[in-house]
Write a structure and sequence with these properties.
Helices cover 10% and strands 49% of the residues. With 304 residues, the chain is mostly beta strands. It has one domain: Glycosyl hydrolase domain, family 43 (Tachylectin-2, Chain A).
């Protein structure tokens, strides 16, 4: 039993976030040598993921993230302030912590206010909060969609707000083949489902803010085919005034250093931010995983 526990520790994965210069061709392969990975004390144990670029100044970058606390086994939302030149963590503030898991701190700025509508499917509904800059806390929660949606994205078109979300069982991810589309006349109002988009692949779970290029809009999403959030896919969202159609335009696979996943992609003011999943002990962990897989297959053959 102790050997099994030790093996699990050696092959434990963790998320890491990193930023790089703006890429006009967002759907093309990513040059990971340009990524500045953000590392801080205990970054492998109490890791962060689902990064959203919040603000950028001459010297610093502020990022909203899911912060996973190993001792609690759930995520909370935090704001990181990092040195733009070297990626050093300068400050961290918890902006929302609930009894249930929180992640994907996506936001919408409007009328000099900032609203955050994170993933909290454990809470049974999608809620939107106002960001209080005086306290760096999320306040005044309102239920806008009474369903346990995950990684929802809201985008405004001609005065109407459209929300794109999925339900995910967290096991088979089969329901991530189905994208639900909702609309509302106000950002914080109740949203009504207007459409369902079905895919033959598990490619519909959101991965970041809508990307705009030359009057067209593109939705980043996660592939959950091989495993949860394995790689990024991008869809052009074609809207005819009544319904949306998706057109696949590209994908980004994870890099060699963190090969298990890349499942968030966001842009702001000349920068891109991503997250990736890797092993606690890098390639040594990968070797142990591969060896374990080979041994399991051999044992099955011997058993036959």
């Amino acid at each position: 039993m102790k050997a099994v526990q030790y093996l699990r520790k050696l092959t434990k994965p963790f998320y890491i976030i990193g930023y790089l210069p703006y890429r006009d061709n967002f759907q093309s392969a990513l040059d990971f040598s340009k990524v500045q990975w953000i590392k801080f004390p205990m970054y492998k144990k109490n890791w962060v993921a689902d990064p959203f670029l919040f603000s950028i100044s001459d010297n610093t970058i502020e990022i909203l993230v899911e912060e996973m606390r190993e001792d609690e086994g759930k995520g909370r939302l935090s704001k990181l302030c990092i040195d733009k030149k070297n990626g050093k963590l300068l400050d961290k503030k918890v902006i929302l912590d609930l009894p249930s898991h929180l992640s994907f701190p996506i936001f919408f700025k409007e009328n000099e206010k900032t609203y955050v509508y994170p993933e909290n499917s454990g809470g049974g509904a999608l809620r939107i909060y106002e960001y209080d800059y005086s306290t760096d806390k999320l306040v005044n929660p309102q239920v806008i969609i009474d369903e346990p949606l995950v990684d929802t994205i809201i985008h405004k078109i001609d005065g109407t707000y459209y929300a794109f979300g999925v339900v995910d069982d967290g096991v088979t991810h089969e329901s991530t083949k189905i994208l639900k589309v909702y609309s509302s006349k106000t950002l914080t109002g109740k949203y009504t489902q207007i459409q369902t988009i079905k895919n033959d692949k598990k490619w519909e779970r959101g991965a970041g803010h809508i990307i705009e290029r030359n009057g067209r809009i593109y939705r980043p999403a996660q592939s959950c085919e091989i495993r949860y959030g394995y790689h990024l896919v991008f869809f052009e969202m074609v809207f005819d005034g009544k319904e949306f159609k998706e057109r696949f335009v590209g994908k980004i696979m994870p890099g060699n250093d963190y090969p298990l996943s890349i499942h968030t992609y966001n842009e702001l003011d000349g920068y891109v931010i991503i997250d990736s999943l890797g092993y606690f002990y890098g390639r040594f962990s990968q070797f142990l995983v591969n060896t374990k897989s080979v041994l399991q297959k051999c044992l099955k053959l011997i058993g036959k």
